[in-house]
Write a structure and sequence with these properties.
The protein has about 1000 residues and is an alpha+beta fold. Among the domains are: about 5-155, Mth169, Chain: A (2-Layer Sandwich), CATH 3.30.1280; about 185-235, no CATH class; about 235-240 and about 430-600, PurM-like C-terminal domain (Phosphoribosyl-aminoimidazole Synthetase, Chain A, domain 2, Alpha-Beta Complex); about 810-990, Alpha-Beta Complex (Phosphoribosyl-aminoimidazole Synthetase, Chain A, domain 2), CATH 3.90.650.10. Helix content is about 35%, strand content about 25%. The protein contains 30 helices and 40 strands. A seven-stranded mixed sheet has the order 18-20-17-21-19-22-23. A seven-stranded mixed sheet has the order 35-37-34-38-36-39-40, with helices on both faces. A hairpin with an 8-residue loop joins strand 27 and strand 28 (about 685-690). Helix 2 packs across helix 3 (about 90-105), helix 23 runs parallel beside helix 24 and helix 23 (about 700-720) packs parallel to helix 26. The longest helix has 21 residues, at about 740-760.
Length: about 1000
């Protein structure tokens, strides 16, 4: 018999107030909400034991509980109970289960405890509003919802007891897939839809095109047998675009070695060779993360992933698994780096955009709204980060209607690892024949199946919901600490990697490349529930798992350590030098694949490109004489406005190393770069920044990429980084990546990555690509639609500075200080935020324009060297990169940051541009705003002798913000409180 414990607060519950406000904003007439936390226990306990359990869940001063009966409440019209579907990770339930086991000194089988939330709502709701409430309160992909009106709730004495237990009845076994005599059409169908089930349905996409399927067919014909389903699933995972990055690897036009090797890797190799003895790179493109020297003792590692598709289905789960997954990349670097910082980047559709989308006809399989996606993604990263005890200081938000089909969710993790320990190089690893294959962390379930192949295709009606996962950061924190803080330095294992995309199939097979082979017994893999098929066990991406190679003689010590730390560790096989990947299940060999075919058997595919530069409409007419409304409107645009509500949710102070914060100055302005001190006994710091300009792709992806690099570099230099110890990471998010025109855009972006990095002498240390960010489905009128994200490249920079005491923030601090602009302003409003705003105001959609900013690397490098010298001499009081929104926005942020006024003249820019709006809002690259003490003016201007610079004015004591145009006339007159209000307004209620 299952038991149900309900807990209700006896004091005002803030969750109720927040939920009521949210539902009212959606137009749902809710007058009042009461929250009840529910714990369903699938085990038999005595009344005394149940009383002790209930005491665990309710604080006697502010809560009350009931056992096997409902909490008595009146004044509600409907009861909604939301819980997880069977098999979905339930972190609260898991924690409750552990609490019960500790309190009663018992062990519960399986999940044992399930959490849910009961909401008693008071409101005059019709049938349509009840349906909207269900859709708003629960995500049907991962959650179940039960609704009862008040009279039925009373008649049935509450909601009843539901145990969301997984019950699998089919006997697990591997099946043969007949591809021996399959036609090309049949092979195409298997590759696209997946292996057929007995009822005629398909398991989910293998993401294998005909070229790959025919190569697999040839291989098994040579073996004179058909593949088992698990073998075909394993090959699909291993060969997926998500894992093999085939579009970057395959020949394209006349580039035989592919885009990655020809542009990204070649740039890094040339730069490292040029640096010679000054090369600070230690590990690039060869491990789970890239690594550079921090000092003589430590390395700092960095990795950025995307979790776009799962975040479209289940935003909290998709984003949460992204952030904890990239942490595992750090834990899996070398012999284990300690995660020390997080970063994030969110590309969303505007949260108020109303554009219903469906994956199927007739309004079936609805997609989540932009607001639901945004709120869920933000919450997912918050849970994954804060619960892991890792600071999250750096991030951004970017908005475009084209992200309504699929958002882009970038997640970043930095790690710290000693170079050596007792003579071992900790950044090197190698599994050896005879080592045990050991899985540590969470158990395996159906969650995350087909995640790798699912992420290698566009989002459509056949996208599998089983690909969604839920993170458990507490379990992963225990795993991380046990590995990095203890087992690593005890020399208890020889290699470690993450069970990420493809699960065991990927991690074991990748590690087996080090030894030369492996043998695994699936019967030994710990499962969340019985009945999983062999292929499901092998490719599931259930979270919080790592694979290690442990020498047999060290297993007992390793196992004992993991038990004492509450981390499950299981020997599931051994690494060999057989050249084979052998997997057994119930005494049967279900996988027998050549390591060479598995990792090197995929055939290259010729790719061809086209590129057509489009001409776009430009705004006409003369700009307004008063640009005050334009500036205030610009500050309130989603791509410029404050997202402090995100920064304030994410803990950036934990671990104690925060130096330059995500919100800077008295006005709490979102900074473009942050600085942290990972080794508290040292004054050395790490600088994090980014650059991203999707709107420029509408004109030319070459300049989009060049500007992304220049912006990431400029943002870092402005706070104190140096070009001599700065590295880059590239993250491509593309669309329709099998179309020649899109490939042409990709090729141009890669050309810019090579040209710009080589010009600045900055190596790439890590990267990632996500190729098919498209949505194919239907709109609210049942019309077929395809929505593709704009070609997007995120460039992130990682720098090391000698002394964090020299770091410079963006806020102008002292009245009387002079304001300088370094760099040149051009008529470059193409793809700008100003053109987008004018277009929306004048015709209801953005202007794009044509004069995209062009990066002058030679001049910009001179500017950045001047900034480096000025900071080293402590000349700068503040420093602010000029980018999205242009000069006026940068000046306004500087003023808001310090909460001091400004008096600025743009007359010196007359020789560079013709109009005031160009001077104020052009997004020309390479420019930085700085403020200095007037007494240091001569010294500073001597540094600027060989670069373009302009003294624009000064900081004032009052709250006036005044800009005089290039003809000397006043063009902007505002006050700080108005600017601040405009800057904070868009997200004030989030």
């Amino acid at each position: 018999m299952a038991h149900r414990i309900e807990v209700i607060s006896t004091v005002p519950d803030m969750r109720a107030a927040v939920q009521k406000e949210r539902l009212n904003a959606l137009g749902l007439p809710i007058k009042d909400i009461r929250f009840i936390d529910v714990y369903t226990i699938d085990a038999q306990f005595s009344d005394d034991a149940l009383s002790k359990i209930a005491e665990l869940f309710a604080h006697p001063l502010v809560q009350k509980n009931t056992i096997d009966k409902p909490v008595i409440c009146e004044g509600f019209t409907h009861a909604f109970e939301v819980g997880f579907l069977p098999g979905v990770t339930d972190n609260v339930g898991t924690t409750a289960k552990e609490s019960i086991e500790d309190r009663l000194n018992v062990r519960l089988n399986g999940q044992g405890v399930y959490s849910s939330q009961l909401m008693l709502l008071n409101g005059d709701l019709n049938v349509e509003e009840i349906t909207r409430l269900q859709n708003s309160l629960a995500n049907p992909i991962i959650q179940r919802v039960q609704v009862k009106p008040h009279n039925l709730y009373t008649h049935e004495n509450g909601m009843g007891t539901t145990v969301p237990k997984v019950c699998l009845t089919e006997i697990p076994h591997a099946t043969l897939v007949d591809i021996f005599n399959a036609s090309d059409d049949q092979l195409t169908s298997i590759g696209k839809k997946g292996i057929a089930n007995s009822d005629g349905s398909s398991r989910g996409p293998l993401a294998l095109d005909l070229t790959y399927m025919k190569a697999i067919q040839r291989h098994f014909k040579e073996l004179e047998r058909n593949p088992k389903d698990i073998e075909l699933e394993m090959i699909a995972q291993t060969w997926s675009e998500h894992c093999k990055h085939t579009i970057f690897a395959d020949p394209i036009d006349k580039i035989k070695n592919g885009l990655f090797k020809h542009y990204i890797k070649r740039a890094t190799e040339e730069i490292r060779a040029k640096k010679g003895s000054n090369d600070f790179c230690v590990s690039v493109f060869s491990d789970n993360a890239g690594a550079i020297a921090f000092d003589e003792v430590f390395l700092v590692t960095d990795k950025i992933e995307t979790h776009n598709t799962p975040s479209a289905f289940d935003p909290p789960g998709g984003a949460g698994t992204g952030i904890v997954g990239v942490d595992r990349d750090e834990i899996g670097f070398g012999l284990g780096a300690k995660p020390i910082a997080h970063g994030y980047g969110f590309c969303f559709a505007p949260p108020d955009l109303i554009k219903p989308l469906y994956r199927n006809k007739n309004k079936k399989q609805p997609m989540l709204s932009p607001r639901q996606i945004m709120e869920g993604v933000i919450r997912g990263v918050e849970v994954g980060s804060n619960c892991s005890g890792i600071p999250t200081p750096q991030g951004f938000m970017y908005f475009d209607d084209r992200f309504c089909g699929k958002p882009l969710v970038f997640v970043r993790a930095l790690g710290l690892i000693p170079r050596e320990h007792e003579g071992r190089k900790l950044y090197e690893k190698r599994a050896r024949p005879g080592d045990y294959v050991v899985m540590v962390g969470g158990r395996v379930g159906k969650d995350g199946i087909h995640g790798a192949t699912f992420s290698s295709e566009e989002l459509n009606t056949e996208s599998p919901t089983t690909a969604v996962q839920i993170c458990d950061p507490i379990t992963q924190k225990k795993l991380s600490d046990a590995i990095v803080k203890e087992a690593r330095d005890l020399d208890l294992y020889t290699s470690i990697t993450d069970d990420g995309a493809g699960g065991l199939s990927c991690s074991v097979a990748e590690t087996a490349r080090e030894s030369g082979g492996c043998r695994v017994d699936l019967d030994k893999v710990p499962l969340k529930y019985p009945g999983l098929q062999p292929w499901e066990i092998w490719i599931s991406e259930s979270q919080e798992r790592m694979t290690l190679s442990v020498p047999p003689e060290k297993w007992n010590m390793f196992s004992d350590l993991m038990k004492r730390r509450g981390v499950e560790a299981t020997v599931i096989g051994e690494f060999t030098d057989s050249g084979k990947c052998i997997v057994e299940h119930r005494g049967e060999c279900v996988v027998n694949l050549s390591m060479n075919f598995l990792h090197a058997g995929l055939p290259p595919r010729e790719q061809f490109t086209t590129f057509t530069r489009q001409t776009h409409e430009e705004p006409s007419g003369v700009c307004n004489s008063d640009l005050t409304p334009s500036l205030e409107a610009m500050l309130g645009r989603l791509n410029i406005a404050s997202f402090a509500f995100v920064s304030e949710q994410y803990d950036h102070e934990v671990q104690g190393g925060s130096v330059l914060k995500p919100l800077q100055g008295r006005g709490l302005v979102n900074g473009d770069a942050t600085v942290m001190r990972p080794v508290l006994s040292s004054r050395r710091g790490v600088v994090l920044s980014h650059g991203i300009n999707p709107s420029y792709s509408d004109i030319d992806t070459y300049h989009m990429a060049a500007n992304a690099i220049d912006t990431a570099v400029r943002n870092a230099i402005a706070v104190g980084a140096t070009l001599d110890h700065l590295a880059l990471l590239d993250n491509f998010c593309w669309c329709s990546s099998n179309e020649p025109e899109r490939l042409g855009q990709l090729k141009r972006a890669c050309e810019a990555c090579y040209d710009t990095a080589v010009a600045y002498n900055l190596p790439y240390i890590s990267g990632k690509d996500s190729m098919f960010n498209d949505f194919k489905g239907y709109d609210g009128e049942n019309n077929s639609v395809k929505i593709s994200v704009p070609p997007t490249l995120l460039i992130s920079s990682l720098g090391v500075i000698q002394d964090v005491m020299q770091v410079v923030s963006l806020d102008a601090k002292v009245p009387g200080d002079l304001v300088y602009l370094l760099g040149t302003t051009h008529d470059e409003l193409g793809g700008s935020e100003y053109f987008a705003m004018r277009g929306e105001q004048e015709r209801g959609k953005p202007y794009i324009g044509n004069s995209v900013p062009i990066v002058n690397t030679s001049q910009n490098m001179q500017v950045y060297r001047v900034i480096e010298n000025a900071i080293s001499q402590s000349l700068l009081a503040s420093s602010q990169s000029v980018h999205r929104g242009g000069l006026a926005v940068a000046l306004a942020k500087t003023a808001i940051g310090g909460m001091h006024g400004m008096s600025i003249s743009l007359q010196e820019l007359l020789k560079e541009v013709e109009n005031d709006d160009i001077a104020l809002f052009s997004e020309s690259a390479g420019r930085i705003i700085v403020t200095i003490n007037p007494e240091r003016r001569d010294t500073f201007e001597r540094l600027c002798t060989n670069i373009p610079y302009h003294c624009l004015g000064s900081i004032t004591e009052d709250s006036q913000f005044i800009l005089y145009g290039i003809t000397g006339k006043e063009v902007v007159k505002s006050k700080l409180d108005r600017l601040l209000q405009a800057y904070r307004a868009p997200f004030a209620n989030f």
